[in-house]
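Hello forum,

I keep getting stuck at the same step: I have a sequence, I want structure tokens, and every attempt I make locally crashes halfway through. Rather than fight my setup again tonight, could one of you with a working pipeline run this one for me? It's a single chain of 74 residues.
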Amino acid sequence: MNTIHRFLIPHSSFLIQGKCLLAFSYGLDSTALYHLLRESEIDFDIALVYYGMRAEADEEEKTARELAARDGRR
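Reply #2:
Ran it on my machine without issues. Output:
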């Protein structure tokens, strides 16, 4: 168990009381949190924040949807 997991588990009891919703932008921070929640076996789905204003936005949306589908997230 790494340092982040050792910190997260005692401070995240509210996360295990039901399903959570992660606001996901495909940025580094939300991607890291996605993987941390998944590895911690916390039940969650994602809400993709998609504005379509950057050239990369369409590809990021596609990749985020594939990531969610692979892990059984909605």
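Helices lie at 3-8, 28-39, 57-70. If your local run keeps crashing, start a new thread with the error log.
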